[in-house]
Amino acid sequence: MSFTWSFSSRKEDVNCPRQYHEVKVLKNYTKRVTREMTFGTEVHKYCEDYVGEGKPLPKNYLHFKPVLDELLAIPGTRYPEYRMALDAEGKPSAYGSGYWVRGIVDLLIVDGDQAYIVDYKTGSNKYPDPKQLKLMALMVFAHFPEVQKIKAGLLFIVHTSFVDESYTRDQVEELWGHFRPDLQRLQASYDTGVWNPNRTPLCGWCPVTSCENYKERR
Fold this sequence. Notes:
With 218 residues, the protein is an alpha+beta fold. The chain is 35% helix and 21% strand. The chain has 7 helices and 5 strands, in the order H-H-H-H-E-E-E-H-E-E-H-H. Strand 4 (149-156) and strand 5 form a beta hairpin.
């Protein structure tokens, strides 16, 4: 395939190919940094520092401590904010260049042949998307050949809820199957130059003002 991707970019294309093309490919527009995005970045940093380096949590985030302490109790080597990348053959690649897909797992713990993946979420837990866990699992299986089993979860830290999944190495081909249809459609857009807009309730937050579906929020 002629493009590089990540979970977030794949999701943006699924939501609206037109926006993906204008923002990610042509770079004609830039997404506005929202208050929610700033909050998410801040929480991720404090969680990383607490779990990875033992730095105290700020007073206004101390209510996250019990669930983070549960993560600290899991045995194994911890890798906070761990960067991984794969080439087009699904083999480990450098994160910065020569990669086909890449991503960052918020917390990876490796204990012998078992690993744990945790992704912190600061938004709503109403519509969880575990596909991100599947992609991170594929990367862990590639980068850590000793790992045979993975327990993974989306930790909605504000709501103290956890959406968990588990995978084994013999499921690798099955896991890739969750991504192939979207990636094939994305490749078709690159090949044909057709990037159709997708009208959704999120159009009011879209930066692509040239789109026929754009409607300024009031």
